[in-house]
Every structure is written in structure tokens, then in C-alpha cells.
Design goal:
heterodimer; A: alpha+beta; FAD/NAD(P)-binding domain; D-Amino Acid Oxidase, Chain A, domain 2; 2 domains; eight-stranded mixed beta sheet; globular; B: mainly alpha; Arc Repressor Mutant, subunit A; two-stranded antiparallel ribbon; 3 helices; about 5% strand
Chain lengths: ~375, ~100
């Protein structure tokens, strides 16, 4: 095991792997990734697989548009499943449709070609849907989905090939500093020295930063998802029922993956709930009556690591030299992975950050109270 | 081991048609824990949810990694354990919405 590495990345999820990948691509391969469990075992492998730029703030829209371009490049280069099947946001109330007409203008302004569509076109995109009560939808044609397992395995393989060392089953207990600069990490497998540390450990980021006296305001909210048995491709888009915050998407293997919002308390353990499946299928059967006969295979939980304004906290932690953070995606960490890996690698290499909007998402905005509130969080 | 592959495939995971050769190859590539192996090959993610194949995969992995089966961490079993039709979860029964 390497005892010294210029760059240490804590967390083997999409953020850590994507950042290591872009660092290595630029020639910086003196990098180790430390993962306490197995790769992807935090929020990445529990996610709903969707990838979109139809958000409600300039920061999210611009970053995600870039991420979508990178998803295409990465999936072609590394050979994992990614499909631009679109997102269809269904509305049953006039006020919601009107609000999304405005958001669509914002999307268009930043080059994301969303538009409002009506039942005829919805039926073309989502065959066999029952649109009773639905008055219209927002269609995001460049949104899509990817396979989290394939993505993580491909990134890990590419990183290793370029010289990045990845250690699983190694837990970081403490960040070691000296005179306000990082010196390394104390792990379950001993001390590793390094001069730059990225903490991309979900809610664990909060716990770790506390060891250097930095409190970053993240909360862990349990979310619930389930999949059905496999079917041949039935519809390509991820479908959202906005009024109930319910979604369903067909995975690359044909399973229908679905979830809905369930009232939860922050920092509760990940426990399955007897009321979740009845709640999600109530909406799903309204939209797809034929799904009554489809079998439920598996129900699991995962955290949305929420920040105060539902945007991630990215970049340098100014109080500690050499310390960087990437956490608090509020349910969007997987889809943001490629763009976040890009900007984090730029910060770490002390290059100019190529997307100016990312600079507005540092920890400083929280300290200065300059919050940017995202309205479209689903599930 | 690792060299010549079998002429007749031996199916270990019947739900997803995963063969013994594929499992051995993935283990050799470094997928040496059950959670990663499951997600690499989709073993235990079909209708049997691992009830049929997982005990066999545990034996293969233990043999290949020279560990005892009890040293391997078993993936979490997820509800509803056996596949159930969605209609059973409609509160108040299947015909609630038509009434």
C-alpha cells in the first residue's frame, strides 16, 4: 500500500472516481482513492440513474449541460450504458405547468432545448400511458440515464490503467494538518501522507471535516426506490409525476425503477418502510394501469445528502490549505459526476476553473449567506 | 484456472444466464467481494433474488480467493424477498380506484 501520495481522494463513489479520472487524464497520476466499503457503495449505486439539465437555476443548468456532453464522451470512450432517452415531467395543475413554462425559458437561455408538450406528444414518447388528469408536460430531450454499476467499474478500470491506486475497505478517520495545511490522513490501515486531499464522502464529508474544525452544513435524508422484473423496452424517457414527486424509468436491463417522496427525518438510518411500496404504486398504476400485473423484485433505500440550498458544495475549503470538498448534491450526485470531476480536478491542479458558475458553489457561499435555491428535486 | 474455458457453458445464475466461466473471469479481474460481483454480472438481481445462485457463487468465490465462505460478506436481502405483483400493494385492494 502506498504510504505517500500527492493527492488523496476520500470516497470511491462517482465524485472521487470521476475526479481521479480527469486528474490522470491530465497527467497527474500520483493519486490514491480510499473507499471505506466497496466502490459505489454510498449513494452512487443506490441512485435512480437519471441525468438531466432541466433544473431551475443557472448554476445547475449550465453545469449539467456540460455534464451531459461529458456523459456522452465518457460512455463512448469507456464503453458503458448511457442513453439520452429524455425526461417527461407530467403536470396535473395549471399553476405547475405555468411555472415550468418559465423554467423552460431559462433552460433554453442556457442551451437546454426543453419545451412544453401536450397529451398527443406525451403518448408518442411514452406509449401505454394513461393521461387522465394530466394537462401537459415539460419534455427535456437531452436528459437521459446511465448504468451506475457499469460507469463506476469502467472509471475504476480506466483510473487503475493510468496509474491511480484504489484501496477499498479502508476507512479514513481523521485529516492530519500542520500549520493550517493538510499533511495526510489517518486511516484504518495507517497514515497516508499527501499534500492535497479531496473529501467526497457523502455525509461522511461532514464528519471528516469536523476533524479539522470545519463544519459543513449537510443533512442525510433517506430516500426510497424499487425495481420490478425485466421487460422489453417499453418507453425511453424518465417520467415524473410532478404533483406527487414520483418517477419511473426503465433501466438498461429492462427493469422499471421507481420512487416517490416519503416524509423523512434528517440523519435517520436507512430503513425500509411498510408504507413506501403502496405509496409509489398508487401513482404508477394511475399512469400505467397495466403495471398492476408486474412483479416487484427489490426495494432499497439511499441517502440524498442535502445542502441548505440543494446545490453541491464544491472546491477548496479556504481555512485549510490543500483541502477540497465535493458533497451535498441533494440527490444529483451521479448525474453531476463528470462535470464535478472536471472542475474539482481543475481546482486541485490550481488551474482556472473552466465553468465560472462552479465558483459560485464553494463553501464560501454558505459562510456569506449567498444561497442559490433549487426548486426541482424529485423523489 | 483462468486459462482454458469450458466448451459447454455451466449456468450458475439462471435468471440472468451467468456462467461459471464468467464468474471465474470476473473474480480474476478483481471483483473479489460479493457486492461488486453481483453488480458486475447481475447475479442475484433477477426473480430469484439470489436464493438459487448465491450459495453457489459463495462457494466459487471462497474457493477462488482461498477464504472460508463465512468470511465473505453476504449482500443485503431486500424486500419483498419473493417477487410480488404490484396489485397486491394497492391499499384497499386491486379495484380501489375503479370504485
Amino acid at each position: 500500500m502506498k504510504r505517500r501520495s500527492k493527492i488523496i481522494i476520500v470516497g470511491g463513489g462517482i465524485t472521487g472516481l470521476s475526479t481521479a479520472y480527469f486528474l490522470a487524464k491530465k497527467g497527474e497520476t500520483d493519486v490514491v482513492i480510499l473507499e471505506k466499503n466497496y466502490l459505489g457503495s454510498g449513494s452512487t449505486f443506490r441512485c435512480a440513474t437519471g441525468i438531466r439539465a432541466s433544473f431551475t437555476t443557472e448554476e445547475h443548468i449550465v453545469l449539467q449541460k456540460k455534464s451531459i456532453e461529458l456523459w456522452k464522451e465518457l460512455s463512448e470512450e469507456l464503453g458503458f450504458f448511457y442513453l439520452r432517452g429524455g425526461y417527461v415531467w407530467l403536470f396535473s395543475e395549471e399553476k405547475h405547468l405555468e411555472a415550468f413554462k418559465e423554467f423552460s425559458k431559462l433552460h433554453n437561455k442556457y442551451g437546454v432545448p426543453t419545451r412544453i408538450i401536450y397529451p398527443d406528444e406525451i403518448k408518442e414518447l411514452v406509449p401505454r400511458i394513461n393521461l387522465e388528469g394530466i394537462i401537459g408536460a415539460l419534455f427535456d430531450p437531452i436528459a437521459g440515464k446511465a448504468d451506475p454499476f457499469g460507469t463506476i467499474f469502467a472509471l475504476a478500470q480506466a483510473c487503475r490503467k493510468m496509474g491511480v491506486e484504489i484501496y477499498t475497505g479502508v476507512k479514513v478517520n481523521k485529516i492530519i494538518t500542520e500549520n493550517g495545511k493538510v499533511r495526510g490522513v489517518d486511516t484504518s490501515a495507517g497514515v497516508i501522507e499527501g499534500s492535497k486531499i479531496l473529501v467526497a464522502a457523502g455525509y461522511g464529508t461532514r464528519e471528516l471535516l469536523k476533524t479539522v474544525g470545519v463544519d459543513i452544513p449537510l443533512e442525510n435524508f433517506p430516500h426510497h426506490s424499487m425495481v420490478t422484473e425485466q421487460f422489453r423496452e417499453t418507453f425511453k424517457p424518465l417520467v415524473i409525476d410532478w404533483s406527487t414527486s414520483t418517477y419511473v424509468v426503465q433501466t438498461k436491463d429492462g427493469n422499471f425503477l421507481m420512487g416517490t417522496e416519503v416524509e423523512e427525518h434528517p440523519n435517520y438510518p436507512l430503513l425500509t418502510r411498510i408504507d413506501f411500496i403502496p405509496r409509489v404504486v398508487k401513482t404508477i398504476v394511475r399512469l400505467f394501469p397495466w403495471m398492476r400485473e408486474v412483479h416487484v423484485l427489490r426495494y432499497w433505500t439511499g441517502y440524498y445528502v442535502m445542502s441548505p440550498d440543494r446545490h453541491p458544495i464544491l472546491g477548496p475549503v479556504e481555512d485549510v490549505e490543500g483541502l477540497y470538498v465535493g458533497a451535498g448534491y441533494s440527490g444529483h450526485g451521479f448525474m453531476m459526476g463528470p462535470v464535478v470531476g472536471t472542475v474539482l480536478s481543475e481546482w486541485i491542479l490550481e488551474e482556472k476553473v473552466s465553468i465560472p458558475q462552479a465558483e459560485r458553489l464553494t463553501l464560501r457561499r454558505i459562510k456569506e449567506g449567498k444561497l442559490i435555491y433549487e426548486k426541482a428535486v424529485i423523489g | 484456472m483462468g486459462g482454458e474455458r469450458r466448451k459447454e457453458p455451466i449456468i450458475v445464475c439462471r435468471c440472468q444466464n451467468v456462467t461459471l466461466d464468467e464468474i471465474e473471469k470476473a473474480i480474476e479481474e478483481g471483483f473479489t467481494d460479493l457486492e461488486s460481483l453481483k453488480r458486475k454480472l447481475r447475479i442475484g438481481m433477477g426473480p430469484c433474488q439470489g436464493r438459487t445462485c448465491l450459495p453457489i457463487v459463495i462457494r466459487i468465490l471462497a474457493r477462488k480467493t482461498r477464504k472460508k465462505p463465512e468470511e465473505l460478506l453476504i449482500p443485503t436481502s431486500r424486500p419483498p424477498i419473493v417477487p410480488l405483483p404490484i396489485k397486491l400493494f394497492l391499499v384497499g385492494g386491486e379495484h380501489e380506484e375503479e370504485e
